[in-house]
Design a protein that fits this description.
By secondary structure, the chain is α/β, with parallel strands linked by helices. The protein contains 11 helices and 7 strands. The structure holds S-adenosylmethionine.
């Protein structure tokens, strides 16, 4: 493939999440609302029970009211948006490049009677389609992992946030000493170019107006989560092959093994980063 036709990270993420096998896989195995790592109270808990806990944990770090304007970057099926709308009555804009997921998101919002509070917009978070100072909170879960321009994403967030705004997110990251040979098959699973790190994000916050960057390292849950995803896929193997195809499922199981191994060996990180524009260091 020559450079003119080479796909960008944005194209790859869009193709991946719009494809039927990926949509069916995430919808069935990850529970239909959330596509992110969960917080496990015990190692064999269901993915569906573990997933909402991280949303609650993130929300507990901020103050929301019905006036709070929130932007969710890479919003998937909109599970976090519905939680925030239902719990606090806040107004949420979901920005996501997958039309397939956006359709499901809108259907769920309507069904839950929350569509008056949630607006779903198709777009790229590397070039956020909103004016400066439009939001009080920018929220994102396990989505910036797909970008090859993470510094640009943080810059865009800084631009659209109000002067006292908060940026809270989780991301799938690497530890600073993760060997290249371990990283390669991890990146291949979902066609990624690279991974960020806690250190990288703290550095970005320092370079911008976002003076505080709190980190909550929850990396142990990443290994549990990917092991649980792998177990559920193996348990439902025949059904998953029928709905997603054998090649997709076999490649996925192989890829998940690399994530579990890399997680167990402390090569991957996951957790919350909270950048706050109003607090000086
Ligand atoms: C792992 S899923 C997480 C979805 C959702 N945040 C959740 O936790 O359920 C990653 C999401 O990021 C979105 N995404 C990836 N790259 C993006 C980009 N450049 N702009 C907007 N959305 C993007 C994908 O479409 C997908 O919805």
């Amino acid at each position: 493939m020559d450079t003119a036709t080479e796909k960008t990270a944005v194209d790859k993420a869009q193709d991946y999440y719009n494809s039927s096998p990926a949509d069916r896989f995430y919808f069935k195995i990850w529970g239909g609302e959330h596509i992110h790592v969960g917080i496990y109270n015990h190692p064999d808990e269901s993915i569906k029970d573990a997933s909402p806990r991280i949303v609650q944990m993130m929300a507990s770090k901020l103050k929301f009211t019905p006036e709070t304007k929130i932007l969710d970057l890479g919003s998937g099926y909109g599970g976090a948006a519905r939680y925030l709308a239902k719990r606090f009555g806040s107004q949420i804009t979901c920005l996501n490049l997958s039309e397939t997921q956006n359709e499901r998101n809108e259907q769920f919002n309507k069904k839950a009677g929350l569509d008056h509070l949630i607006t779903v917009v198709e777009g790229n978070f590397e070039d956020i389609p909103f004016p400066d100072n439009s939001f009080d909170v920018v929220w994102s879960q396990d989505a910036m992992v797909h970008s090859s321009e993470r510094a640009q994403v943080v810059k865009e967030v800084d631009r659209v946030l109000n002067k006292d705004g908060d940026f809270i997110f989780t991301d799938l990251m690497q530890t600073f000493d993760c060997p290249k040979s371990i990283l390669k098959p991890v990146l291949d699973r979902i066609h990624l170019d690279s991974l960020g790190s806690f250190g990288f994000y703290v550095e970005q916050a320092r370079k911008l107006d976002m003076k505080k960057a709190e980190v909550v390292d929850l990396s142990e849950h990443l290994t549990t989560h990917y092991r649980r995803v792998m177990e559920e896929t193996q348990k439902n193997y025949d059904e998953m092959v029928e709905i997603c195809g054998k090649e997709y499922i076999d490649t996925m199981i192989q890829g998940l093994k690399h994530w579990v191994e890399a997680g167990k060996n402390d090569h991957l990180s996951w957790g919350i980063v909270h950048m706050d524009k109003s607090e000086a260091v």
